[in-house]
């Protein structure tokens, strides 16, 4: 698929009109070129042609769709469609340097924290056609930054609601950067409302620096028929620990890639995979061990 000059100009103009920094716009255009040159991962169940390249578009969702969330004392962030509309990060954590925000806000306001990490250290846009698509077409997401030595005692709840009242795919990205000797517990819940058959393309990048500890639980409760394309990956520094709990509770066709790079010595990762309706889901599970004395565990429970 070749993109003509007019399309590329309109594509770049749409990203610029969205107020994106030049480095991000340049990255989108570069990903388009990579999309032309790369291949999709092999799959027997997924129709990759559903990942369509168009000009980036943004639409506001009806705030009446906001899910009810129990006031349980946790830090809560709610992404309704493409926008973050609730964020109750506490003042003391904000003063300590913790950042939890919409990913496009982070691109504009925190480039020093995000530019070198976003699709550069953990997942790269040029891995395959799938990653290039995501980098080019990103339209939503959340950025979490935990400074060195900060222990976040409260659970961070991320609620992502795919707005299927609109005819618009959700291409969303969660990036977590935990600096050395920090710790955080994150629970992400993904749901939907509406009847349109939109795809869901969700990437999660976790960058755990030296001796950082991250517990990350993801509950995919999408109820619609739109196909689901996932890629979750962690990069672990020396002595870092990441515990994943992946819960695929959706009924729709799903491609999911779960990957970990144990780069630093003495790093540890554990992945627990709970799957409903496994027959229409396809998985890529990969662990790369670079460091010495690293540890990797994997447990699965199908028809959870």
TrEMBL record:
Q: Which residues form the SUF system FeS cluster assembly SufBD core domain?
A: 170-272
Q: What residue intervals traverse the membrane?
A: none
| Domain (SUF system FeS cluster assembly SufBD N-terminal) ranges | 24-158
One of its GO biological process terms is: iron-sulfur cluster assembly
Q: Which InterPro entries match?
A: Fe-S_cluster_assembly_SufBD (IPR055346), SUF_FeS_clus_asmbl_SufBD_core (IPR000825), SUF_FeS_clus_asmbl_SufBD_sf (IPR037284), SufBD_N (IPR045595)
Q: Which domain of life is it from?
A: Bacteria
User: Which family, according to UniProt?
Assistant: Belongs to the iron-sulfur cluster assembly SufBD family.
The name under which this protein is listed is Fe-S cluster assembly protein SufD
The species this protein was found in: Companilactobacillus allii
């Amino acid at each position: 698929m070749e993109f003509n000059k007019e399309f590329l100009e309109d594509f770049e103009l749409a990203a610029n009109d969205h107020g994106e920094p030049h480095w991000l716009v340049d990255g989108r255009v570069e990903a388009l070129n990579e999309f032309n040159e790369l291949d999709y991962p092999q799959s027997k169940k997924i129709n990759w042609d559903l990942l369509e390249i168009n000009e980036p578009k943004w639409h506001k969702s009806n705030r009446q769709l906001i899910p009810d969330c129990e006031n349980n004392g946790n830090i809560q962030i709610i992404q309704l469609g493409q926008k973050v509309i609730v964020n109750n990060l506490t003042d003391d954590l904000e003063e300590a340097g913790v950042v939890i925000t919409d990913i496009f806000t982070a691109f504009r306001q925190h480039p020093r924290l995000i530019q070198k990490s976003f699709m550069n250290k953990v997942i790269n846009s040029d891995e395959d056609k799938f990653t290039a698509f995501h980098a080019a077409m990103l339209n939503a997401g959340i950025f979490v930054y935990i400074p060195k030595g900060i222990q976040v005692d409260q659970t961070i709840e991320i609620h992502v609601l795919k707005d299927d009242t609109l005819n618009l795919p959700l291409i969303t990205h969660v990036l977590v950067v935990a600096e050395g000797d920090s710790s955080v517990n994150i629970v992400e819940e993904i749901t939907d409302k509406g009847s349109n058959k939109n795809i869901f393309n969700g990437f999660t990048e976790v960058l755990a620096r030296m001796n950082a500890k991250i517990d990350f639980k993801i509950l995919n409760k999408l109820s619609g028929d739109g196909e689901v394309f996932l890629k979750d990956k962690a990069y672990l520094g020396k002595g870092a620990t990441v515990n994943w709990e992946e819960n695929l509770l959706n009924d729709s066709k799903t491609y999911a890639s779960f990957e970990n790079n144990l780069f630093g010595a003495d790093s540890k990762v554990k992945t627990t995979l709970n799957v409903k309706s496994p027959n229409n889901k396809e998985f890529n599970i990969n662990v790369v061990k670079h460091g010495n004395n690293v540890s990797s565990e994997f447990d699965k429970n199908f028809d959870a």
